[in-house]
Design a protein that fits this description.
The structure is a homodimer of 242-residue chains.
Chain A lengths: L4 E7 L1 H4 L7 H12 L2 E8 L3 H14 L2 E5 L10 H9 L3 E3 L1 H13 L6 H4 L3 E3 L3 E3 L8 E4 L2 E4 L3 H11 L10 E7 L3 H14 L4 E9 L2 E10 L2 H14 L5
Parallel strand pairs in A: 1-2, 1-3, 3-8
Antiparallel strand pairs in A: 4-5, 6-7, 7-8, 9-11, 10-11
Protein name (chains A, B): Molybdopterin-binding protein
Organism (chains A, B): Thioclava dalianensis
InterPro entries (chains A, B): CinA, FLAD1_M, MoaB/Mog-like_dom_sf, MoaB/Mog_dom
Chain lengths: 242, 242
């Protein structure tokens, strides 16, 4: 059975303007791979209601899961919950369990439970909450759309809470082999090896270290013995000293 | 006149698997902002022919420019040029000027000009070459699609060669103000200020430093005096010592 598929949607003007270097997608892509879920696409879009709806409908329709980051805080530019509810065709309102979580959080800190903070208890109808052990305000799963916060520490905690609920597949086996040759010197042999192993993903990633060019050859697949066989062929063609 | 718009398309399995942390989009988003081109979307997709065609047609159709990174090297998994040519409905073949650039590069290094290397001279019909001062193999602009290499050092050099050719607009003016309050404490006032300045983009970005929560308030707009006015309102509402 093929692995489940997923897309990641990052919502936030601050990434598109180059102000912030995104890290949540990198973290999540690695965790999905370990969990046996194939991440097929990552998208970064602006805090725009119509744009979020279009992206959610497109990606949630094409993949088994859509995981989002950003836009569920208390401020006027936090519009993800509204857009996801509309994209999925369900209502959105303050929900008692989410309100209770926030009320307890602020009461324990002698902080006022303001209308802005109450906004974070607005949850699409029928959604399942995603626990936020860092700052209480929950994420949620609405159908196959999993909505999480953008602050990295909170996002990562939510991902760890969510993943056990998602059925995983086979984590791909990865082997790599670094050669001190430019990519163009390994291309022909690599093409032959890839042709003999169509079930594997064989990639070549050129790098440059202290002015010398090299290539990292990466073999990935679900079957350990085939990955190891192909690795042996790569190693025979390009011994370490090359 | 509104600024030109752009999308960034990153092509590469190694990002989706979480193996590599993408940095080219971050670099390019910042450079586009400085050049007065509004980056509206960033997308990361796999090395898949049909997937690249669909993404190129979607993004090049919706935005003034599409800038891509990755998949134009010499190996079997470098399929971007073929897919872009097909997406744009033009042919693709080895082109004399591109071949001459590569031939001179390899001749100067006493290196063989192999069939794999010749692949990098395959250019869509009618495209304009993008100079590669690092390793010779050129990128290209095919209509409004600008195709560049994935190796960061080469990508950055190609971006610097390309940008002067693209008409820019007004670089947005950005001011920010950091407050030592959680986002939920600034939300109500910020919403009022944003309501008074609909032409501005006013964002709030929560952070955590050594266990204390704070929020970075970012005001962006094309009109300096309006940005400064709104900044004054933000500073009055949240003096530095708050």
């Amino acid at each position: 059975m093929p692995n489940p598929t997923a897309a990641i949607l990052i919502i936030g003007d601050e990434i598109l303007s180059g102000r912030t270097r995104e890290g949540n997608a990198y973290f999540l892509a690695g965790r999905l791979a370990e969990h046996g879920i194939d991440c097929r696409e990552i998208r970064v879009i602006a805090d725009d209601h119509a744009g979020i709806i279009a992206a959610v409908q497109d990606l949630a329709g094409r993949f088994d899961h859509l995981l989002t980051s950003g836009g569920i805080g208390p401020t006027h530019d936090d519009i993800t919950a509204d857009a996801v509810a509309e994209a999925m065709g369900v209502g959105l309102d303050v929900r008692d369990d989410a309100r209770a979580i926030l009320a307890a959080h602020y009461a324990a800190r002698d902080a006022e439970f303001t209308p802005a903070r109450l906004r974070m208890a607005r949850i699409p109808d029928g959604a399942v909450l995603i626990d936020n052990p860092v700052s209480a305000a929950p994420g949620f799963s609405c159908g196959n759309v999993h909505v999480m916060a953008g602050v990295p520490k909170i996002f990562q905690a939510m991902v760890e809470g969510l993943l056990p609920r998602l059925t995983g597949g086979t984590a791909l086996i990865t082997r790599n082999w670094e050669v001190r040759l430019p990519e163009s010197s390994v291309a022909d042999v690599l093409r032959e090896i890839a042709g003999r192993h169509p079930a594997l993903s064989i990639g070549s990633y050129p790098f440059e270290k202290q002015g010398a060019y090299g290539t990292n050859l990466v073999l990935r697949g679900a079957d350990l013995s085939e990955v190891e066989t192909a690795l042996g062929e790569v190693q025979a063609a390009f011994p370490e000293a090359s």
